[in-house]
Amino acid sequence: LPQSNISNLIQLQMRHAPLAGYLHRIGKTDSPHCLSCWEAIGKAIKETVQHYILYCPAYA
């Protein structure tokens, strides 16, 4: 695998991927919610690694 892919996998595994939930926790974004789900279904769902991999319709 290319180094960038390995880095992405490690970030996901450590739950430090640049997703809204993590970015909000470290003060880099105003909201922890998934913008894709807000636009698609009108619900404020926290964007976590689990959500990103298993549930988000934008990445399914």
UniProtKB/TrEMBL annotation:
Top-rank lineage group of the source organism: Eukaryota
Protein name as annotated: Reverse transcriptase zinc-binding domain-containing protein
